[in-house]
Write a structure and sequence with these properties.
Layout: H1 7-22, H2 28-35, E1 44-51, H3 57-77, E2 82-89, E3 93-101, H4 104-112, H5 126-134, E4 157-164, H6 180-193, E5 196-202, H7 208-222, E6 226-228, H8 236-245
Parallel strand pairs: 1-2, 1-4, 4-5, 5-6
Antiparallel strand pairs: 2-3
Length: 250
């Protein structure tokens, strides 16, 4: 079911998007990261939650172009005390890597191997993919390949980075206002209670205002960041670097 927001809602979202373009992407943390060989953020657990549907080719390519730098930044910012997880989604969920110590050499090639295809139209299961990571969900009873386990470490900086161009639609490939957006916010509040900072990287597509509102809510609810890429996905890799440089904090 496709729904359209009022002109006033579009205008409000448009102001938010304009502010994103006006605010410089550089942060003091990035300068610190570039000038020190010591940890900036401390121990880090970073979960990449990536839309790999057919419309995400440009963004995936851009992330891959920056991937070596992204992984190097995580190692440096954490003092080489990090764990990575990788979850991709369409209308289902694929747990590709669970958290493991210093596992960039494993996760990096799996990010590179993500191939944009499918999706059966918009929306996608971004809310449920985040739910899997935040709540360490098993696969039983869900269109999810394996259990997501273990959970984030106590005492580590907990980051979740969602990259998508679509509204959240659960597993039924339908966005219902007042239901799917509310569920997404509920997952965000659960993340905040666990100390997980959720950042949203928004690749512009259809339903801009609604998608932006959900990703902005993830960030504002949890203390994460929101970043908007170019329509072709350019800037997705740099957006991840910005999030790491800021230790995930908005």
């Amino acid at each position: 079911m496709k729904r359209y927001r009022s002109l006033a809602a579009w205008a409000t979202a448009g102001i938010g998007l304009l502010l994103v373009f006006l605010v410089p992407t550089g942060t003091p943390a990035r300068s610190a990261l570039a000038q020190t060989n010591g940890p900036v953020c401390g121990p880090m657990d970073v979960a990449f939650i990536i839309d790999d549907t057919g419309s995400m080719g440009g963004a995936l390519s851009n992330v891959n172009s920056e991937l070596a730098s992204i992984l190097g930044d995580i190692a440096t910012a954490s003092g080489n005390d990090y764990r990575l997880a990788l979850v991709s989604f369409k209308d289902n969920i694929t747990v590709r890597d669970n958290f493991a110590a210093n596992n960039a050499a494993v996760v990096g090639p799996h990010i590179t191997a993500l191939f944009p295809f499918g999706g059966s139209g918009e929306p996608e299961a971004s809310d449920e993919a985040l739910n899997t990571v935040v709540n360490t969900l098993p696969s039983a009873g869900r269109p999810q390949n394996i259990d997501f386990t273990p959970a984030y470490r106590a005492g580590a900086l907990k980051l979740a980075i969602v990259v998508t161009d679509a509204r959240p639609g659960g597993f039924d490939d339908t966005f219902t206002a007042g239901a799917d957006d509310v569920h997404a916010h509920t997952v965000a509040t659960q993340a905040a209670a666990l100390g997980i900072k959720v950042s949203g990287i928004h690749v512009p597509g259809g339903f801009m205002a609604t998608t932006a509102a959900v990703l902005m809510d993830y960030a504002s609810t949890t203390g994460g960041l929101y970043r908007l890429t170019a329509p072709d996905g350019t800037g997705a890799g740099q957006a991840i670097k910005d999030i790491i440089a800021a230790c995930g904090s908005g």
